[in-house]
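Office hours follow-up: a student asked to see two folded examples consecutively, so here they are.
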Amino acid sequence: MDIGENIRHLRQNLGLSQAEFAQRMDVTKETVSRWESGRSFIRCNNIEKIRTVFGVPVEHLLGEVAPTRQDVKLPVADGASRAEGKAAQGEGVFPAYKVDRSASGTMLRYLAQAMAPADVAQRHPASFFVRLDSVDLAKVYPQGCLLLADQRMRPYNGCTVVAIVDDSITVIRRFQAGNNTVVLSTLGLKAPQPDLVLDKRRVCILGTVVWFQAGHDVTPD
């Protein structure tokens, strides 16, 4: 179950309409609708605000652990997510995004849907695609390909991640972590972009890349 579905179940279990939930979160009803449908990524500060306002552990919003009876009910087991359901049918359909400029930096914008092989989808049901439009990782991936990022997989040194820096800049880079710092690097064919060396608190990992495929494998909704 992805974060959008968890937010919807949280809202419904609290008996709130999208407008009422939006009012408590100080966002618009349309923003809540985009979160729940997976058409917009929820930023780290809003995840923290949900945790604070509604008393829900972050792990439950991200779908990493099942809630206990003492927690707000987020039904994880009774019905798989859209991606899990498609994977069970041998399809493996996930939302696909691109990195786009916004007023405050860069963000993920919804493109359409894309299909992954069923075995990949079954191993990584809580995932999304992002199109790699830059050449920053040209030594590893072809420009324009689709990267499948698993939202539940913990990043490891040397992997590729989709991350938000300072709650405003979305990047796709190689990951390296120390005790208190994260290094986000490029692997381009030309002169590499400078490494981003950041305090861990400035980085929100959206997903760890586990698969890539041709960029034309995108299907309209």
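And the second, which I mentioned at the end of office hours:
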Amino acid sequence: MDSSEIDPATIAAYRAAHYSVLTTESFELLVGEVSSDLVRLMAAEMASCAAFITAWNPFSQFATAAENIAAQDALRGDLVALGAKFIPGFGKDPSGLWPGEESLLVFGLELERARDLGIKYGQNAILWTGLEACPELVLLR
């Protein structure tokens, strides 16, 4: 379901983005595509779901490096307070028109909690998946 508050071109860019999971054997997540790498990683973490989330560039408006770093640090702090396990990620525009964004892959973060965090940090959308490891774009506005 696409929200009228988010520009269709922005939604299309989110759908086309590559979401890198930065592990010893890094891999990319694509919206709507099952990831066997994510299946293995979620199994190793004994997670039934996962979210890919960032605090960078709220509402897809460029923020300064200092603002992005502070927001991402606050997001990490919230996740630590929740006792969530997470690893670094990086969202990138394959066309190169939009700069990449530091992100986190969070294990076991239920959809409602992931939405709440995305909203708290001014995000238009997050990625979320259940056991099927097929990331879906979840619009927040």
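Two things to take away from it. The chain has one domain: 8-139. The mean pLDDT is 95.
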